[in-house]
Write a structure and sequence with these properties.
- With about 500 residues, this protein is of the alpha+beta class.
- Helices cover about 30% and strands about 25% of the residues.
- It folds into 2 domains: about 260 residues, Aminohydrolase, N-terminal nucleophile (Ntn) domain (Glutamine Phosphoribosylpyrophosphate, subunit 1, domain 1, 4-Layer Sandwich), CATH 3.60.20; about 190 residues, Rossmann fold.
- A hairpin with a 2-residue loop joins strand 15 and strand 16.
């Protein structure tokens, strides 16, 4: 799972005659976008900037590290240097959370395909399950060379072959690749002729939005990043391609390249997307609140005990816990309190770190607030449990601090199967729910007395069955995926 953004500033304002806007460049805006997208990736950051009216090879800037560390508020001198050095009215930026392939400068995005003095570049959010098979094919047929195992490098090679080797129109090349490629890809790109492109796979696993105003247009993974700058933000529909030139409103086209087969990732709703971004016009914060209410309803319907205190697992569990507290008030006089403290200036998101670093990050990031805990039955509300690293630390720590009992409510179903569409969960054995019943999961978490997961049916009561990928909960994948180095459906 990654974050992407693309911007183009028009050479003329749509409402006026064709006159240059001036010396406005996109680099400063792209750096700001990257910082705002860090919920989607903190391991590597990269961007490409160029001029829409000059056919030139695009040269990416990319580094290992989070956007904040590379050019955030503590690195303003570096940001100023980048803004002065990289000029252009067209650009794309990427923040990476490594889900497949290696973590290196070579694997960091964007990736490009160069031919003579021209190039096409993309930055993608998602994964291609049958990456190895496709890479071998184009290496054998066209002699393509790869610097990494990143799926975006595969996609841009496929597009580059169509444009430069086969002579296909550049937009037709994007559509051709999009219509034949099976996998998750919400991508932004820059074409050889200087157009900004956004493309979303037919399943729509990952979010993508676009907007425009008088000065320019933007394509982005999070609607919240766009909201303050654009009056109206549109979803890029699954199976569509949006193409924006520097002519403004008179040259924005949306093309369908494949029928939509909606399979939006439920984990985007439970956990990943920013709370102030939207799904079908409703904020993720509101949806998480409603999921918390539904979890409380199921909790009581199943006869589970009434806690003394309800607390959120920070930070992403906050809206769900608020909804749970509202739901529980209808049944009992239970208070909501902060019990688990998370250091906002700690070592980053444990979910996005290497396995060897995860335990250290959790210990550095989390602590228990002791006053509300002693002698109380504490119910923790979390948006999801994947590996249970945090639960395995927090639950026994609460008991050590004097909690009488520890309960756990999860506003998502048990995460049992690996994801091949953009989440870093490739090995089943690392998933605490894989091959376990809820009772067996309970036994695997020290210090935990009661556990409840929101049912998939409960989620659909809140969200409506509008086309979601449920593979990580059910094992039913919408396309062929690897399994022990073999391909299955």
């Amino acid at each position: 799972m990654c974050g992407v953004s693309g911007r183009i500033y028009y050479r003329c304002k749509p409402s006026k005659r064709r006159m240059p806007i001036g010396k406005r460049h996109v680099t400063a805006s792209l750096l700001s976008d990257a910082i705002q997208l860090q919920n989607r990736g903190q391991q590597a950051t990269g961007f490409v900037v160029g001029f829409s009216y000059l056919e030139q090879p695009y040269v990416p800037w990319k580094k290992i590290g989070s956007a904040s560390a590379l050019f955030g508020k503590d690195s303003e001198a570096k940001a100023d240097t980048l803004i002065k050095r990289y000029k252009g009215n067209l650009g794309i930026v990427h923040v990476r959370y490594t889900t497949a392939g290696e973590s290196s400068n070579e694997a960091a995005q964007p990736h490009g395909f160069k031919h003579g003095g021209r190039s096409v570049v993309i930055a993608s959010n998602g994964d291609i399950p049958l990456y190895t098979k496709l890479r071998r094919r184009i290496v054998r047929q066209y002699g393509c060379r790869f610097a990494s195992k990143c799926d975006a490098e595969l996609i841009v090679n496929l597009i580059g072959v169509e444009i430069f080797e086969k002579g296909m129109d550049e937009i037709a090349a994007f559509a051709q690749v999009g219509s034949t490629l099976e996998g998750a890809f919400s991508l932004v790109g820059m074409t050889p002729s200087g157009k900004l492109v956004g493309m979303r796979d037919p399943w729509g696993f990952r979010p993508m939005f676009w907007a425009r105003n008088e000065d320019g247009a933007m394509i982005c993974s999070e609607s919240s990043v766009m909201a303050s700058e654009f009056d109206e933000v549109h979803e890029v529909e699954p199976g569509t391609l949006i193409v924006i030139s520097d002519n403004g409103e008179e040259d924005v086209s949306i093309q369908r390249f494949a029928p939509a087969q909606p399979s939006f990732c439920l984990m985007e709703i439970y956990y990943f997307s920013q709370p102030n971004s939207k799904y079908k016009g409703v904020s993720f914060d509101e949806l998480r609140y409603r999921l918390g209410e539904e979890t409380a309803r199921e909790w009581f319907a199943s006869g589970k005990p009434i806690p003394d205190i309800v607390a959120a697992m920070p930070f992403s569990g906050g809206p769900a816990a608020q909804g749970f507290i509202e739901g529980i008030r209808k049944e009992a006089n239970t208070r909501g309190r902060n019990v688990v403290y998370k250091n906002r200036h700690g070592l980053g998101r444990a979910f996005m770190s290497k396995l060897s670093d995860r335990a250290d990050r959790i210990r550095a990031n989390l602590d228990i607030i002791p006053e509300p805990v002693h002698g109380k039955a504490i119910l923790l509300v979390d948006d999801s449990i994947v590996r249970a690293d945090q639960a395995r630390w927090v639950c026994p720590e609460l008991r050590n601090r004097g909690a009488r009992a520890v309960y756990y409510a999860v506003t998502a179903p048990p995460y049992r199967f690996p994801c091949f569409f953009g989440l870093n969960t490739p090995e089943s054995k690392l998933l605490i729910a894989h091959g376990r019943t809820e009772a067996e999961i309970l036994e695997a978490v020290p210090g935990l007395d009661v556990l409840h997961y929101l049912s998939l049916e409960g989620s659909m009561r809140v969200l409506g069955d509008q086309g979601f990928c449920t593979a990580c909960f059910t094992g039913k994948y919408p396309m062929p995926v690897p399994n022990n180095k073999r391909e299955i459906v």
